[in-house]
Every structure is written in C-alpha cells, then in structure tokens.
Write a structure and sequence with these properties.
- The structure holds 2 protein chains of 2 kinds.
- Chain A is α+β, with helices and mostly antiparallel strands.
- Helix content of chain A is 35%, strand content 24%.
- Chain A folds into 2 domains: 256 residues; 213 residues, Jelly Rolls (Sandwich), CATH 2.60.120.
- In chain A, strand 8 and strand 9 form a beta hairpin.
- The N terminus of chain A is likely disordered.
- Chain B has a 6-stranded mixed β-sheet, with helices on both faces. In chain B, strands 2-1-4-5 form a 4-stranded antiparallel β-sheet, covered by helices on one side. A 4-stranded antiparallel β-sheet of chain B has the order 12-13-11-14, with helices on one face.
- In chain B, 34% of the residues lie in helices and 26% in strands.
- Chain B folds into 2 domains: 160 residues, P-loop containing nucleotide triphosphate hydrolases (Rossmann fold, 3-Layer(aba) Sandwich), CATH 3.40.50; 58 residues, 2-Layer Sandwich (Alpha-Beta Plaits), CATH 3.30.70.100.
- The chains are: A alpha+beta, B alpha/beta.
- At the A-B interface, helix 1, helix 3 and helix 4 of A face helix 2, helix 5 and helix 6 of B.
C-alpha cells in the first residue's frame, strides 16, 4: 500500500521515498511501578476538584458541630441522688442481695443443695434470679466475691467480681460447692452430692484471708417494655426470689459458728430520700431456718454490672451520621462523576487494568475520608466530653474519659473507619450502578434508614435490623460493655447496639467486601 | 512493535442492534487514514473496541499486534480522543492532563509541552466547565498527544472547530503522519477529510464499503471526463455524441463528455462553429467520489435509518 501524497515535512535523516512501515516510537519514558502511578493519578483527580475538598472539610466540621449539639442536648441530674457502687476494677455495679453468712478464715469450703427457686407470691421467678453459695471479702457493696449459683433459665453459673461469668451444666445439678485454697476458689456442681464436676478455678481481685462465706438469694426486678414510634416506656416491677437450701455445710476455721443474715446493699431505712412505701421501696429479705442445715431465704436485688447508665462515649459521637451523608456523596461521586461525562473511558484507556483502577480509587477515597474522619472524631470527642461533664455526666456516676484511654481511642478510630468504609461502600455501589443518585440513595438507605426504623420497630426486629445492615457498624462508638449475664433492654434510642463494637464494624466491612467484589466482576464483564 | 491498528473480522452487537458486522481493515503508519461513514455506522464502536473499552463479540482489534489491555504503558503507544466533553467541569484543563501524566509517570513539563502544542496554555488554567467545544477538542488532542504515541485515534476531532482550527488540525495531522505515526481520524463528513487523509476506510451499517488510497479513489471517480460550458447545448450534444462521445447534461449550459479527449472536443466544436466558453478536464472532489462509491452500496443508504445510539 502506498501513500498518495508524500508528507510535506520530513526530517533530514529520513529518505524522501521512505515507506510508511518505518514506525514512530514514543520519545518518552514512563516512570516506574504501575500501581503507585495509578494511586498518584487518582489522588490528583481527587484534589484537583475543589468542591470535593470542600465536602471533606464540611463532613469533618458537621460531625464536630452536630456531636457538640447532641452532647449539649443531653443532661444528667442523677448525680447525688443515686448511690454509686463500684466494683474493684471501677465498673459501676449493682450489689444488692440477701446474704446468710459466717466468717471463713483461710482455706475452707461451703456446700449446699438448692432445692428450688420461686418468684414473688407464687409467680415464676425472673430468668436471671440467683440462689447459691458465695465467698465475699465483706458485706460492703462492691467488694470482691466468687459465687456459685442456680438460675431458673440459665442453668448453673459461676460468677466473680461482677463482670465474670462461667457456665456450668444447664440443668440437673442442684448441689453446689465452693472451695477456697489460698487466693484461688474452685466451683463444683453435682446432681446428687456424691459425683462432683469442677466448673472453674478463679482468682478474685481482692479477697482477704478473713472473708465471709454462705448462702445468697438475689433477683433482678421484673421489667416490662412498651415501645411505639417515638416513645418507649420501661416499667420495673418489684420482684423477689425465694429459695430452699438443704444440707448446708461450711468447712474451715470460722471464728463465729452462728449464721448472720444481711441485706447487702439495701438502703438505710431512715434515708429521707427513700419513699415511705410503693414499689421503689425495697422489701427487706428474710431467712427461715427450717431444720438442721436447712434454710428458706428470700431476697431481691442483683449482683451484676449496672447496664442502665447512659453511654457517655456513644453520646460524644452523635454527629457522625451527618458526616456519613457527606462521605457517601463523596465516595459515590468519585466514580459516578466519571461515568456521567464519559471520563471513565479516558481512565480505562490510560489504565486498562480496571480492577487496579478501582483499587487505587478505594485507597484514595478510603484514605482521605479516614484522615478527615479521624480529625473530626478526635476533635469532637473531647469537646463533647467537656459539654457532657458540664451537663452533669461526671464522676461518680459517669467516668471521666480522656481521648487516649478506655473505650475512647477505639471509638474515635472506629468512627473514622466507619466514615471511610461508608465512602468505599458508596464508591463500590457507584461502580455497580454508574449513577450518582442511585448510589447515594442506596447507601444512605442501607446505613441510615435502619437506624430510623430501629426506633419504630418492635425490639427484636430492631435488633436484627441493627445486626444485619451496615448500620451495625455504629456499635463501634459504644463505650459501655454489655454483658450476656445481665438481662438488658438494648434500646437503639439509648444508643445501644446489639453487636459488640468490632463485630458491628465487621458487618459494614462485609458489605464493603461484597460490593467491591460485585463491582470488580461488573467492571471486568461490562463495556465501559 | 509496528505502529499499526489491525481490525480483523470484528463483530459487536448491542442487544438486537448489530453495531459492527465483520469489519476488517488495517491502519498503516506514516499516513492519515480517514474513517468515514454516516452517524451510527459503527465508527465509535470500532474505536472503543480498539481501545479495549468494549469487548468484541468476535474477531479482534490489535495495536501493533497486541490487544490493548496487553499494553504496559498504553498512553505511550496509543493516543485517543473519543469524546471531547469527557471532562470534569470543576477540574482545570491542566489538572485533567496532570492525572493522565501521573498515570504514566510523566513529568508536568510534558503536560506544558502538549498544552503549548495545541495552543491551550492560557485556557488550561481555567476550569473545564467554561470551555467552548473548540477548546475541549484542543484539550482532548493534547491528552491524546501526551504520551507522544506512534498511533493516534481521533473520533470526529474537527467537530466544533472554527475554520482556523480546522486548518490547524489538518496541518497537525499531516505533520504527525510525516513523523511515521499511524493516524485514524473518523468523520461523518467526507469533506472534512479533503486534503488531510491519504487513505480511506469507508463503512456503513458496521460493514466495510471501501478500503482505498484517496488518490486511487479520486482517479477512479474522475475517469476521463471533460467538462464543457456552452450556450448551444443541444447542438454540442448532437455533434459530440455523433463523434463517439458520451454526453451528460450537468447544468443549464454545462455538459460532461466521456470518450473524447479535450483537444479533440475543442477541434470538433471550432470546426462546427459552435460557441463554447470553457473546456476543462473534470476533477472529482472527495465528496463526489464518496457519493459515487456509496451509490452502489444499498447497505450504506439504509444504514442512515439503522442508526446505532449508545
């Protein structure tokens, strides 16, 4: 094939009748390492659109401001009115129960057969009513202890120092034995008093040589919950538990052979703040000796971490969901803006390996949103804490929280991760749907709508919603640990999420992973 | 690697619509190849397939013997302008080239070079949202030239350019081809390629109609026709037909004669005393040659209604 018109300007080195098969070669040399180049390209794309930088700054600012507003709207006036009981490790706890005890100095053991637990006036007992044996450092509320108990619905349990719980057999065993050897206590259970099975050996935090040992009965109050859109009413009705004990045997050196009964943690009956009657006034416990080594004990109260106090960590991040809205928009636009104008073709022409382009976009948008989210959360938290403190959320009822201790660092970093993961989710959904409006709507519906619905739906449905949708990730902001051995109404409106912090965030992570996998599959398969 | 574009038995359909139907052609280095066909003929689809953006249903499109996705540094091997409007309006022109340069580790110096080459140094400092179509085309051409590639694919680059811009791009394409690059320029108007293209690939309804050098095409269309202007049209027709010419009326006082050389016509007319104003050899325009070519192609005529839109 010959060219009809000879090119007008030729370089001197080229002969005039040069054939067209002398190809041109690019005079340029590319830099090295493909993926780093892609990252740089995507980073340039991001910062050269000023409005995106602005959205990033706005996201951080809105998170801080709304968190601050949320904190100033929360007021606590319970300080001074509520008695605060703290466990040896500082956890706020309930420590109220009927204790029938004798001194136990040094090594020894206490054995008992629990023959039954009943509720108040013949009603069925609360699921977490407790009857069993205990070794406790003193009758002072909050002091260290180890207890072995039978429960109506949760089988035999060994619990110590309020937050620890070990499960024994689920049924059958009615004989309990707690043995002290030095600083170690071992729990055993038996169906018949002859064959004993060990449950666990534990070391409580602070047990003096001279401790108290004996029987105890406790039951949490009976609560009923009514929820409707916009309001929740929780009613705590009074409950007592009565248990029959047989074959009570205390071995070891006891200074005093007679049993003492104490309502541990009961309020002073002369307390002027205490109502004269009614459900709020505690019913005193009772102890009846029904034979040799046989007792019937009635008690109320609970020995457990207090799960009713507000979560001041979670309360410091009430603006994060607003930040989420901005991040979703940013993540989606980072790819849908290219689809809208056909620029994605320029992108894929420059880098035909599409999944690498997506990976570079994920790293860039994930990185910038994480950085902005981290700054926002790290600024919002101390500011909100200051406001909460001046609104009454302060010691002793609420701990003083600093940015770098306890649950705070996890909640701050977790909030930043949450913000960056929703941006990446929006990016992946944007790559799938190729439409800004579609992607933003889909992700907002996935992340924010469940939170709103959780306020309206019945509690079990709300809890499932907050387990199965990306909204589960907001659990990362919780500062209060929820213990399975405490019946607790986990109310979304009180900032409680049904999953543990990291598991909740992992749910969002799973959504991101699935969306990215689908996006890669779609990018490879479909024409650009 | 040879700087060529090679399309072989390419087929691509979108749903029920066949966009490209067994197309084969080669774009050789050192010349400008015009890629012509009406809107919807399959030009853009073919170009997208060459660039690895659309996957062909059958056949292949290779650059220097390799599929596009096998190119390690594609911008240094192929420069493309598909859609000049594919810009983020909030991004400055220079920043648009910045990310492209970064994607291949090219320095900003190179960005400024191509901006100068297309005359966009000043507008490139402003946001692309305010650009005229001509500015977008120039920026798109700058992007295609960024990697100094031996192969260029330009989809309708003349669109929206003013006459001065059209002159400029013709010169630019000639110059780039002279350097030994393979250049494929699509257009739906043959006249745009006049004086630019050396070779033509004409398609209609996704099929090849012609793959020919422009010179050959013009020669075929021109033939040995002679144009004649005379006020005595009837007499001239009678005389020349009688002497062995084939005469066609092309206007009120113009005729086209085939089969007789111009000198003979002049002699005959003078001898017969028929007054005439002008005798000249008729040179076909590219547009005429194109019409001639496509007149035979029924497929091509119907391709206009079977427009493929994406």
């Amino acid at each position: 094939m010959t060219s009809s018109s000879t090119p007008p300007s030729l370089t001197p080195s080229t002969p005039p009748e040069r054939t067209p098969s002398t190809p041109y070669r690019s005079q340029l040399h590319p830099g090295r390492d493909g993926f780093v180049r892609l990252l740089r390209a995507e980073w340039s794309k991001f910062w050269t659109v000023r409005s995106w930088l602005l959205v990033l700054v706005l996201a951080a600012a809105a998170t801080v401001v709304i968190s601050q507003l949320g904190a100033s709207g929360s007021v606590n006036d319970s300080n001074g009115r509520v008695r605060i009981v703290s466990a040896p490790d500082g956890t706020r706890v309930d420590d109220t129960f009927r204790f029938v005890h004798r001194p136990l100095t040094g090594n020894g053991s206490v054995t008992v057969q629990v023959s039954g637990i009943e509720g108040r006036e013949g009603r069925s007992p609360e699921p977490w009513a407790k009857a069993g044996v205990m070794v406790k450092s003193s009758t002072k509320p909050g002091s260290s202890y180890v207890a072995l108990m039978v429960t109506p619905d949760h089988g035999v349990r060994m619990q110590w120092d309020f937050t620890h719980d070990e499960q024994g057999s689920s049924s059958g065993a009615r004989w309990l034995r707690l043995t002290r050897s030095g600083q170690e206590l071992t729990g055993y259970e038996s169906p018949d008093g002859r064959e004993w099975t060990k449950i666990a050996t534990v070391r409580p935090a602070d047990l003096p040589k001279a401790a108290r040992a004996g029987l105890f009965v406790a039951t949490p109050p009976h609560t009923t919950l009514r929820r409707s859109f916009g309001g929740t009413s929780a009613t705590a009705g009074i409950a007592t538990a009565t248990a029959d004990f047989d074959h009570v045997e205390l071995r070891g050196s006891a200074a005093d052979p007679s049993w003492t009964s104490t309502d541990v943690g009961a309020p002073d009956p002369d307390d002027p703040d205490l109502p004269a009657s009614g459900p709020a006034r505690p019913i005193p416990g009772s102890t009846k000796v029904t034979g040799a080594g046989a007792f019937t004990v009635t008690g109320q109260g609970d020995i457990a971490p207090d799960q009713t106090a507000g979560d001041t960590v979670q309360m410091s991040f009430q603006g994060v969901w607003v930040g989420v809205l901005f991040m979703v928009a940013l993540g989606a636009l980072f790819i849908t803006a290219e689809y809208k104008r056909g620029m994605i073709r320029t992108t894929f022409t420059a880098s035909p390996r599409r999944e690498q382009v997506l990976a570079a976009k994920v790293l860039v948008i994930g990185g910038v949103t994480f950085a902005a989210g981290l700054v926002a959360a790290a600024v919002a938290f101390p500011l909100a804490q200051d406001t909460l403190r001046s609104n009454g959320f302060k010691p002793p009822a609420f701990p003083d929280l600093s940015l770098l201790e306890g649950a705070a660092p996890r909640a701050v970093v977790g909030s930043a991760l949450l913000l960056s993961l929703v941006a990446v989710l929006a990016l992946a959904v944007g790559a799938l749907l190729r439409s800004s409006a579609g992607a933003i709507t889909a992700v907002v519906v996935l992340v924010i709508l469940p939170q709103i619905l959780a306020f309206a739906l019945p509690l079990p449905a709300a809890e499932w919603l907050l387990r199965l949708t990306p909204a589960a990730a907001f659990a990362i902001q919780q500062g209060v640990t929820h213990y399975p051995q405490v019946d607790h109404n986990c109310l979304p409106e009180s900032g409680c999420y049904p999953m543990t912090p990291w598991n909740g965030l992992a749910v969002l992570g799973a959504y991101v992973a699935v969306a990215l996998a689908l996006a890669v599959w779609r990018l490879r398969r479909r024409d650009a | 690697m040879d700087a060529t574009i090679e399309v072989r038995d390419l087929r691509k359909r979108f749903g029920q619509t066949v966009a490209v139907d067994g197309l084969s052609f080669t774009v050789e280095p050192g010349q400008v190849t015009g890629f012509v066909g009406p809107n919807g003929a399959g030009k853009s689809t073919t170009m997208r397939t060459v660039l690895g953006l659309d996957a062909p249903d059958a056949g292949h499109a290779h650059i220097g013997g390799r599929p596009y996705h096998a190119l390690r540094t594609p911008l240094l091997e192929v420069g493309a302008l598909l859609d000049a409007a594919a810009l983020h309006p909030a991004r400055r022109g220079r920043d648009h080239l910045r990310w492209l340069a970064h994607s291949h580790g090219l320095p900003m110096r190179r960005v400024d070079e191509v901006l100068e080459q297309v005359g966009m140094e000043q507008p490139a400092r402003r946001r692309a949202g305010g650009y005229s179509l001509g500015m977008r085309q120039r920026l798109g051409i700058a992007a295609a030239l960024l990697g100094d590639p031996p192969v260029l694919l330009l989809d309708e680059p003349v669109n929206g350019l003013d006459p001065e811009g059209i002159q400029w791009i013709r010169g630019l394409l000639r110059r780039l081809a002279a350097e030994g690059r393979a250049i494929l320029v699509s257009s739906h108007l043959m006249s745009e390629l006049e004086d630019t293209a050396d070779h033509l690939v004409v398609i209609g309804r996704g099929r090849l109609i012609a793959d020919t050098a422009v010179a050959d095409l013009l020669a075929a269309a021109t033939g040995d026709r002679v144009a004649l202007r005379t006020s005595a049209r009837t007499e001239a027709m009678e005389l020349l037909a009688h002497k062995g010419g084939t005469v066609a009326v092309t206007g009120r006082d113009t005729l086209t004669v085939t089969g007789l050389p111009p000198e003979r016509i002049v002699a005959l007319l003078t001898e017969a005393g028929i007054a005439f104003a002008e005798v000249g050899s008729h040179r076909a325009t590219l547009e005429e040659a194109y019409m001639e070519l496509t007149r035979d192609s029924t497929e091509f005529v119907s391709a206009v209604d079977g427009e493929v839109t994406r």
